[in-house]
Amino acid sequence: MINGSKVLDHPIRWAMVGGGKGSQIGYIHRSAALRDNNFQLVAGAFDINPERGMAFAAELGVAPDRCYPDYKTMFEEEAKREDGIEAVSIATPNGMHYTVCKAALEAGLHVVCEKPLCFTSEEAEELVALAKEKNRVVGVTYGYSGHQMIQQARQMIQHGDLGDIRVINMSFAFGGYNYKIEETNPAAKWRFDPTKAGPSFALGDVGTHPLFIIEAMIPDMKIDNLMCTKDSFVEGRELEDNAFVIMRLKGSKSVQEGAKVYCWASSINCGARHGHKIRVVGSKASIEWDDERPNQMTYEIEGEPVRTLERGAGYLYPEARVEDRIGGGHAEGLFEAWANLYRRFAVAMDAANNGEEYGDFWYPNVESGAQGVKWIEKCVESANNGACWVDYE
Ligand SMILES: NC(=O)c1ccc[n+]([C@@H]2O[C@H](COP(=O)([O-])OP(=O)(O)OC[C@H]3O[C@@H](n4cnc5c(N)ncnc54)[C@H](O)[C@@H]3O)[C@@H](O)[C@H]2O)c1
User: pLDDT tens digits, residue range 55-114?
Assistant: First the structure.
């Protein structure tokens, strides 16, 4: 159970690049990082507009001499201080992730980076190698994976409760982009600009979330090949607003050879909120999880009534109760899921500083980020070649 007690000698001196006033994702980064006293916000370059960013930093309580106009100045100035930053979170539009992440690693900082980690596999491999060389942690905020029921699913699959995995049916198909929202909403506008968003919209913006969740649920899962078809249903969009992907999996301890994964990534699912659901079908039973009801998961054993497993309950595997913050029956949500990940990032960063192993837990790391980038690349390759099957390795 997490109760806020100290896990590090001192809170990690932490800054943000991006996540400025009015940004969609900035506040949940701060809320998650600061929740358990493992990080202390001491500096920031929060905005593309330097004046607005510095003013916002001051509003957040950052000392005036540590409110910076841009990330380069921040990294340079902080390196001169004895109490300089030790870690930075990157919450800018996608196009800046690679550049800022690389600069941060070169400056010897730990990083928490938004997804997608970067645009190409070459860039991703460079970041993986640099993080290793510098012995720095790169956490990637696949935030939904911090929900406790994801841990439960992972344990159930590892213990063979579902039998061999045969089918995974998943979606992140939200609504609201069924008209030209980008004409009035700046946060939607950059998402359809390939120079700022990368080679995809729906696949990278939302498809990578369920992809990482199934990787977390099934650590021995390996994609053999995949096919993808994508469309821009709203006229004039350079990037897709809807995509379908079918993946064939290799056989492994928990996966039957030839198992299939179906993924629907969309922004034009009229009437839906998130539409982010994952159903894992095994040879004995199935589980299903929905991010809008994250405290529950259905467990369906062939021939028996459907069960609804509840977060915090005594019958869950112990690993699914480690990050319980308040007893079962109380709703925990996305803010807690993110705080769980930030807590794991902090422990991993501290272990790296001390040359220790960080213990028996996982988190979305630089390799997970690289995997997402590769998946987008392969999907785009398939879609651009008439939805052909593309080998994954
Ligand atoms: N993990 C998740 O669940 C999740 C959810 C939403 C968004 N995201 C990701 O978070 C990132 C930001 O998305 P958003 O929706 O918050 O975007 P947004 O457009 O709402 O906000 C972007 C922020 O970054 C700032 N910024 C832009 N360029 C900058 C620069 N060079 N230096 C400093 N600040 C800069 C902007 O001023 C703004 O404050 C994207 O990569 C997106 O994919 C992740």
Answer: 999 999 999 999 999 999 999 999 999 999 999 999 999 999 999 999 999 999 999 999
Asked if the peptide bond before residue 305 counts as cis, ω within 30 degrees of 0, the response is no
In short, whether 210's Cβ falls inside 6 Å of ligand 1 is no
Eight-state DSSP code of residue 352: H
CATH no. for residue 133? 3.40.50.720
Give CA torsion, residues 356, 361, 365, 367, to 10 deg: 90
pLDDT exceeds cutoff 90 at 359? no
- Strand duo 307-310 + 12-18: pairing: unpaired
Q: Is residue 3 part of a domain?
A: no
Per-residue confidence (pLDDT) for residue 123, from 0 to 100: 98
Angle between helices 208-217 and 148-158 (to 10 degrees): 50
Q: Determine the angle formed by the axes of helices 26-35 and 334-353, rounding to 10 degrees.
A: 60
> Are the C-beta atoms of residues 20 and 93 closer than 8 Å to each other?
no
For the CA of 97, the closest atom of ligand 1 is 41
Q: Judge if the beta carbon of residue 96 lies within 6 A of ligand 1.
A: yes
> Is 270 near ligand 1, meaning CB less than 6 Å away?
no
Sign of CA dihedral 280, 281, 283, 286: positive
Residue-range definition of the domain harbouring residue 40: 12-144+345-365
Q: How far is CA 235 from CA 116, 182, 186, 241, in A?
A: 25, 12, 18, 10
Q: Is the CB of 141 under 6 A from ligand 1?
A: yes
Q: Hey, what are 292's tokens?
A: 């809008």
Q: How many domains does the chain have?
A: 2
